[in-house]
Amino acid sequence: MTQTHEPLSDTAVALEAVRARYRAERDKRIRPDGTEQYAFVTEGKLSRYGADPWTPEVAERPARHDVVDLTIIGAGFGGLLAGAFARKAGIEKIRYIDVAGDFGGTWYWNRYPGLTCDVESYLYLPMLEEIGTKPSRKFAPGEEIRQHALAIAERFDLRRDTLFQTEVTSLRWNDDEERWEVETSRDDSFASRYVLISSGPFQRPKLPRIPGIESFEGHAFHTSRWDYAYTGGDHTGGLDGLADKRVAVVGTGATGLQVVPEVAKYAKELFVVQRTPSAIDVRGDAPTDDEWWNSLKPGWQRRRRDNWIDFVHGMGADENIVGGAWTDLATVRGMRRLVETGFASDPALTMELADYEKMEELRQRVVDLVDDSETAAALQPWYRQMCKRPGFSDHYLQVFNQPNVSLVDTDGRGIDSFTPEGFVVDGVEHQVDVIIFATGYELNFDAATRAGVDIRGRGGVSLTERWSDGMRTLHGWVAREFPNLLQMGLLQNAFSFNFTHVLEDQAEHIGAVLAESEHRGDVLIEPTEEAENEWVAVIHGQDTAGLEFQAECTPSYTNEEGKPSRAEAYTAGPTAFRQLLADWWANGGLEQVLTPKGATRA
Ligand code: NAP
């Protein structure tokens, strides 16, 4: 879209007004307790919220006391992709550990009705060509995605050695044997030449610490542990158990947007409890077109993914192959305008104007789709689009036209308290039979703590202590003094909304290093001090515009509830990061991470 974007006086006035409104909305939502406002489903009486509905029985198995080649902690897509590329690198004994009862990660836990991927399935589902899966729809249902995860496990024979329903309790490097010693909650105690952590950013479901939450006498559960025994039906719908129930869904983020339209179909009465409205763009789902699918040429997925990532996160693509709302984010519009004008205009203002225009469109969309003007006004988002994870739905907003659905807008404050019969907002008690918490997850990128265990490297050094002044890695996946400990994730690494794309790139990179390590046989994977220092300097030397942007935002998990700390992602984007790694390989970077056994890394 080509337009002129001179700050005309009326636009400037509107912009000033909107800035003031955004600030007021942010200030209204800032809470002194920040991230402390949440409790976790592992805590005390709340631990019932964390129980595994999919594999309720703990399967008996003998404890392991052996030696394996590679232990992978986390059996979601990251771990599966790492296992696939490790197999390709010739690694034989691969052992998985996960607290879940099977492979799938977030797709194991989340099976709520209405669940689909939010990024197009042709992009999101990794290894589509290799595995031969054909997604049924542009946005495939969660169960189909879970089945695809299982198919990857099958294809690469990753089920051979799995310790599910198991937590790692200790991870220690043995300096003499030069291998890891792993202990678990199921009395396993074994050795592993390599350990890879891929435990995902959203591990622990969270609940708001609202007074009285434990006193509610009705039924309650978190969306990541959907209770079909109570609601009836399954992931395809049929929630007939709700036909005579008054239901509250708390939370209107990406999960709430998918759950609410399904629950609205079945509940006698539905209260949607909102603190901050999502900014909701068009989704545009459709069944997979057979003719198009059959016309795809080998290598299509890589080309499609690269095009999307270049278009959404950078400026490397001229043609928009994928289309859809992700490729029309405010940031994408702004960046493209900067390119079109040769960066001649004021970059910050250009981005802000593109954002203003986009958010006006999304606010208008609410008015167009919601009949009641008061409800529509309450559903309008007042912040810049990237302040929150962008939302997409073609059904959510229309739900508020149904007679059985009410919006309980808390005007940024959230629920005041729970009572035995329901919840209170603004002094008014709403009595319900069941509360469904779509209140999200703790965001935890930090490998030092997210494995849930204090990791000890060379000489017993603790990863938590070593990183007490900040994370230190080379390219996010290896750290000095922690040989053969490989980490997957988004910190000090590339970030993309198509998370599986960056995970697959990481897995491929790690697999290639593993292959070389195995080939040489007498080396460990550990970066030089110089390489690690240089990379940390790159990360810390990045401009802080993102941080300043987040500080102006309404609170959410993306800005640590209004108190953003230093960004650890590689902000130049995934395309630049991939080029950086390609150059690293071409320029002998491998020597920075392969160190002779028996030596302490200089
Ligand atoms: P979320 O984005 O963290 O949303 C939590 C919701 O709970 C927010 O609307 C929040 O309001 C609300 N909330 C929290 N405390 C409250 C209180 N005291 N009273 C009332 N409301 C309260 O969680 P999510 O929707 O589960 O999504 C988390 C992330 O998972 C997403 O951003 C996305 O990355 C991923 N996800 C992806 C998909 C997909 O791709 N299909 C689907 C679901 C989730 P505030 O906004 O005011 O904090």
Folded structure, characterized:
The strands form six sheets. Strands 2, 3, 4, 5, 6, 7, 20 and 21 form an eight-stranded mixed β-sheet that branches. A five-stranded parallel β-sheet has the order 9-18-10-11-14, with helices on one face. Strands 1-8-19 form a three-stranded antiparallel β-sheet, with no helix packed on it. 33% of the residues lie in helices and 16% in strands. It has 19 helices and 23 strands. The protein has three domains: 8-32 and 306-387, no CATH class; 67-203 and 443-540 and 572-596, FAD/NAD(P)-binding domain (3-Layer(bba) Sandwich); 217-278 and 388-439, FAD/NAD(P)-binding domain, CATH 3.50.50. It has 602 residues and is α/β, with parallel strands linked by helices. Residues 116-118, 202, 208, 210, 250-256, 258, 273, 275-276, 389, 410, 414-415, 438-441, 556-557 line the site of NADP nicotinamide-adenine-dinucleotide phosphate.
CATH superfamily of the largest domain: FAD/NAD(P)-binding domain
Q: Which of globular, elongated, flat, extended, rod-shaped describes the shape?
A: globular
Using the CA coordinates, give the radius of gyration. Answer: 24 Å
Mean pLDDT: 93
Q: Kindly identify the CATH topology of the largest domain.
A: FAD/NAD(P)-binding domain
What is the level 1 CATH name of the largest domain? Alpha Beta
Q: Determine the number of helices (DSSP H or I, runs of at least 4 residues).
A: 19
Number of strands: 23
Low-confidence stretches: 1-5
Distance between the termini: 53 Å
- Fraction of residues in helices? 25-40%
Structural class: alpha/beta
CATH architecture of the largest domain: 3-Layer(bba) Sandwich
Family: Belongs to the FAD-binding monooxygenase family.
Cofactor: FAD
Pfam families: FMO-like, NAD_binding_8
Keywords: FAD, Flavoprotein, Monooxygenase, NADP, Oxidoreductase
